[in-house]
């Protein structure tokens, strides 16, 4: 049958290279039929479409290594691929570059380009940035899935101390892991609020008491409450430090530095109170203690550990340095210009409040930021006109960068929610695939964790496990494997 099939193939043109230029290639991609010419395809001979020109001489094995099905009567090649992506890919033969249309998944489009053997260097720069962003999202999803699988899996080869470390770390760092962990996270959140309220209430004169020297100090009850809160924060930090997988990275983390700054002033002031009086004057000790007590405001930043909104705001501000820099530049230029003008215009008034240009900076700041304390104001007509113009310019300068900052906040917040949902979706699909394969495992195996690494050594792009590819059923388009599956036209249409 194979010999008869090969004999039924039309013989290629005997005129050599001229035949390659005049030949018409009919391709049917996902039901969309298109005629291409050899002189067009031969511009990039390494691509799959260019290889179709001379594939008839190699028989069915060569044909089916390039396409899914072939009709000898119509000389038509069938491909079970995305027709919309194909329309973008063939642009390389006409324009020398490929532009990805809106609405196409970047990862799917990359797989399509790999299938048609079109190099990524022909992809437009704007599309490359979109592809890189989507690839980073998939790597983040894989990282989150790997962390969840690490939590689900229990390595029996590890010692008892190592398993205990993992349990404590999971208990304190991941409130969603269990109900007691969630209770501890809520308790820690409430203690942060209580300690912050106690710090503020302790400064009310009516709630303070007099010490032996007649100075006002905090009420003993408030001090006891703060001591209890500091004890909890200290215990929590030490447990997290001891159970941390990477203690150096833990100690240098920003939020952990905030934790240290929140509890360290209490112990330093306690040491100075009991031991410092022997080495220095009592007045200096009290001043040092007051300065350290101001550092207690750092504990309010501990709320960011339990609030995804604060973390999102921090990231949005970090990504908006350019916009914030423009805002500061606009305000700095306006402050300098309007303060100089205000000082000059107010010199004619005998009771002017503008004594110097540096002093006028304060007036320009509170005017352009629409605060207006009223402690310094213009009295001449020109000075009032200058104040009105500075007010309007300040409103415009502040309003211009606000929109990009809000966009960064919303984009990152939505992205985090999508990644979190996608990671859970990946786990559900992996569990379904493992169940259908008869493995009988609720979680992933150790080999799954190894395959989830975002990039394998010796490979150019990210490599994903076969299980992860299967779970991307809505985005992954399978390539032709080396087994050369011979499908009929009916199967290709299906």
TrEMBL record:
The keyword Nuclease does not apply. Residues 434-466 are annotated as: Disordered. It is found in: Membrane. Residues 25-126 form the Potassium channel tetramerisation-type BTB domain. SUPFAM superfamilies: POZ domain, Voltage-gated potassium channels. Gene3D superfamilies: 1.10.287.70, Potassium Channel Kv1.1, Chain A, Voltage-gated potassium channels. Chain C. This is Potassium voltage-gated channel subfamily F member 1.
């Amino acid at each position: 049958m194979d010999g008869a099939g090969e004999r039924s193939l039309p013989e290629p043109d005997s005129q050599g290279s001229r035949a390659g230029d005049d030949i018409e290639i009919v391709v049917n991609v996902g039901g969309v039929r298109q005629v291409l010419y050899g002189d067009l395809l031969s511009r990039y001979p390494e691509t799959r479409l260019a290889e179709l020109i001379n594939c008839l001489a190699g028989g069915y094995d060569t044909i089916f290594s390039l396409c899914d099905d072939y009709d000898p009567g119509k000389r038509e090649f069938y491909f079970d691929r995305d027709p919309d992506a194909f329309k973008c890919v063939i642009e390389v033969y006409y324009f020398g570059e490929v532009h990805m249309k809106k609405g196409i998944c970047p990862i799917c489009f990359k797989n399509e380009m790999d299938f048609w053997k079109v190099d990524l260097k022909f992809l437009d720069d704007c599309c490359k940035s979109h592809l890189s962003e989507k690839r980073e999202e998939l790597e983040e999803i894989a990282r989150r899935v790997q962390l969840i699988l690490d939590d689900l899996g229990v390595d029996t080869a590890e010692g008892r101390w190592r398993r205990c470390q993992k349990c404590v770390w999971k208990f304190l760092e991941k409130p969603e892991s269990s109900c007691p962990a969630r209770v501890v996270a809520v308790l820690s959140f409430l203690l942060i609020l209580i300690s912050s309220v106690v710090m503020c209430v302790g400064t009310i004169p009516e709630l303070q008491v007099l010490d032996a020297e007649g100075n006002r100090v905090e009420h003993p009850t408030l001090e006891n409450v703060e001591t209890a809160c500091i004890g909890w924060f200290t215990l929590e930090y030490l447990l997290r430090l001891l159970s941390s997988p990477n203690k150096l990275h833990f100690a240098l983390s920003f939020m952990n530095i905030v934790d240290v700054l929140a509890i360290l002033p209490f112990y330093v002031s306690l040491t100075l109170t009991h031991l410092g009086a022997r080495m220095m004057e009592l007045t200096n000790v009290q001043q040092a203690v007051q300065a350290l007590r101001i550092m207690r405001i750092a504990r309010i930043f501990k709320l960011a550990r339990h609030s995804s909104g604060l973390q999102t705001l921090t990231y949005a501000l970090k990504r908006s340095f350019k916009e914030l820099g423009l805002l500061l530049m606009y305000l700095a230029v306006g402050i300098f210009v309007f303060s100089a003008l205000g000082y000059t215009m107010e010199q004619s008034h005998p009771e002017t409040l503008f004594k110097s240009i540096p002093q006028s900076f304060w007036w320009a700041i509170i005017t352009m930021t629409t605060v207006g304390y009223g402690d310094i104001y213009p009295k001449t007509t020109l000075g009032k006109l200058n104040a009105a113009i500075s007010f309007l310019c300040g409103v415009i300068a502040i309003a211009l960068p606000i929109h990009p900052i809000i966009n960064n906040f919303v984009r990152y917040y939505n992205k985090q929610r999508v990644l979190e949902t996608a990671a859970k979706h990946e786990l559900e699909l992996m569990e379904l695939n493992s169940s259908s394969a008869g493995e009988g495992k609720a979680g992933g195996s150790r080999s799954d964790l190894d395959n989830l690494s975002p990039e394998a050594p010796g490979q150019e792009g990210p490599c994903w496990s076969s299980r992860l590819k299967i779970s991307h059923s809505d985005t992954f388009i399978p390539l032709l494997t080396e087994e050369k599956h011979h499908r009929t036209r009916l199967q290709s249409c299906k």
